[in-house]
Each structure stands twice: as structure tokens, then as C-alpha cells.
Amino acid sequence: MFYGATIWDPCLIVTQIVCLQCLYYLTLGVLLSILVGSHLSRMSLVYFFDYAALTTSTVTGWCVIVSFLLSSLAGSVYMLYLIERSKKCLDFSATLYIIHLFICIIYGGWPASITWWVVYGTCIAAMTCLGERLCMIRELRDITIPRHRTSKKCLTLDDTFPSFFVKPKQLSPLDDTSYMIVILFLLGWQGYRPLIEVWNQ
């Protein structure tokens, strides 16, 4: 989508980061609503940004973990369309989760749970590896070049006549005469009289 020349464009980079971050949180919100919302009567931002919500001791905690993992996989698909470069997937994945880390610190303090860090690292690795793989498949895809018909104004003499009309370099006098008769018969005498002068030179 945003693929273009490899130049430094801060506006483009910021736009890609914002779009990827928004799509990630949108997907995470949908997954949390489906997996966690079915076990709770009310959803809150705790399940987004509080490290204590990622725990393996409860069913709700496992649902939160699965939601984060699935969101990372969805993020790799988003990078396929937003980033489109395999060598940039690690940068954008790390940026996304660094921003998420800052938000988590502001919301609930420094994450002190080992489970949170394991899930956090797994999400970064999954999003990066799958994103690079998908982008690499697109980069290695064969490029189809459309064939357009040549404009009549750009045609040259070589394009106008088929290859079998070209005079061979070595022909016997009999073959030479027969070849000329065939050309005149196919092309017409009046319209291509200058060819005779070129031929005799």
C-alpha cells in the first residue's frame, strides 16, 4: 500500500506506525471481546495494558494470552500490506511493542511478571518472522509486464515488414530473382516501387 522509492520519508514512516498500531489494538480489542468478554460481564483496559492480566493460573488469563498471540499474527498480515518490505518487519514490530510497553508502564507500572515478558517476546518473534516470510513471498513473486501494442507512429521499416521479407545475404541469381518476384507479388508493384531501387543497389 505504502510501498515506494527507498528514500527517507518521516511522514510515511509515522503514518505506517500509526496505522499498524491502530489495527493491532483494533484486532486485540475484537479478540478480547470474543474470548475474554464471554467470561466477564464488563470489559476494561486492564486486559489491554495491565501485566497482571496475563496469567496462566486462570482461564481468563489464558484467553488474554491467546488474544495477544493471535493479534501478533494478525499484525504480520497487516505488515504485508502496510510495510511490504521484509527487511523492515523487525523495525516496525519492535516499534509497535515498544510503544505498547510504554503505555503499559504508564497504565500499570513496570511489568513484573515473567509470564508477561515471555508472551511479549513470543509476540514480537511471531509477528516479525511471519511478517518477513509473507513479505518475502511477495517480493519473490514473478513480475508480469503487460504487453501493449506498438503505436503506428513509432513503427520502423523493420517493424513494418515480416522477417521473411528480409533479403538473404547469399543467394544464387535464380533464387534472388524468385525472391524478388514473391515480394512484389505480396506487397504490390505500385506501392513499393522504391524497394526495387534499394534491392538493386
Explained architecture:
The chain has 201 residues and is mainly α. The protein has 2 domains: 10-139, no CATH class; 152-200, no CATH class. It is built from 8 helices and no strands. The protein has helices at 10-35, 46-49, 59-82, 89-108, 114-139, 157-160, 173-187, 194-200. The protein is elongated, with a radius of gyration of 33 Å.
Based on helices, strands and strand pairing, what is the structural class?
mainly alpha
Helix percent reads 55-70%
Gyration radius, rounded? 33 Å
How many helices in DSSP terms? 8
Overall shape: elongated
Q: Count of DSSP E strands?
A: 0
* Element-by-element helix/strand order: HHHHHHHH
**What composes the largest sheet?**
none
First-residue to last-residue Cα separation: 59 Å
Strand coverage percent: under 5%
Q: Give the mean pLDDT.
A: 80
Q: What is the oligomeric state here? A: single chain
How many separate domains make up the residues?
2
Instruction: List low-pLDDT spans.
Output: 154-168
Distinctive features:
single chain, 201 residues, mainly alpha
Task: Offer a concise description of the structure.
This protein has helices at 10-35, 46-49, 59-82, 89-108, 114-139, 157-160, 173-187, 194-200.
